[in-house]
């Protein structure tokens, strides 16, 4: 086994270990939260880690068709993040409020911002 081959094996193994650790940390953030925005950002990061896994497996196997799959996943992940952002914009994020009054204020501000954004586009 030559030096470049062994270096590539070590780099792939190290990459898989780091991606696994980041996957576990992101999964913890999705479960714990505490707010909806934190969960949405964690899901976006989960897509990025998935892209990393696909790229590393593509390099490890030498089957570079995986890169096309990674591109498609990146596009779907981006669209999902935009959809979640629009959902939060229209419904508000009241998951971080314990008090119902504060939650209602947040909903009112979200409605006001949505109406203002709708007026600007018209």
What does this structure look like?
With about 120 residues, the protein is mainly α. It has one domain: Helix Hairpins (Orthogonal Bundle). Helices cover about 85% and strands about 0% of the residues. The protein contains 4 helices and no strands. The mean pLDDT is about 85.
SSE string, helices as H and strands as E: HHHH
- Could you report the average pLDDT, rounded to the nearest whole number? 86
Net shape: elongated
Number-wise, the strands total 0
Report how far apart the termini are.
66 Å
Low-confidence stretches: none
| Quaternary structure of the protein | single chain
Number of helices: 4
Overall SS class: mainly alpha
How are the secondary structure elements laid out?
Elements: H1 3-32, H2 36-61, H3 66-91, H4 100-121
């Amino acid at each position: 086994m030559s030096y470049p081959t062994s270096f590539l094996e070590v780099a792939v193994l190290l990459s898989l270990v780091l991606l696994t650790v980041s996957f576990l940390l992101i999964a913890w953030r999705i479960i714990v939260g505490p707010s909806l925005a934190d969960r949405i950002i964690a899901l976006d990061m989960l897509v990025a880690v998935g892209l990393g896994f696909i790229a590393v497996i593509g390099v490890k196997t030498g089957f570079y068709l995986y890169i096309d799959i990674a591109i498609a996943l990146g596009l779907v992940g981006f669209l999902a993040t935009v959809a979640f952002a629009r959902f939060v914009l229209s419904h508000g994020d009241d998951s971080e409020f314990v008090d119902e009054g504060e939650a209602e204020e947040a909903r009112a501000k979200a409605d006001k911002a949505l109406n203002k954004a709708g007026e600007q586009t018209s």
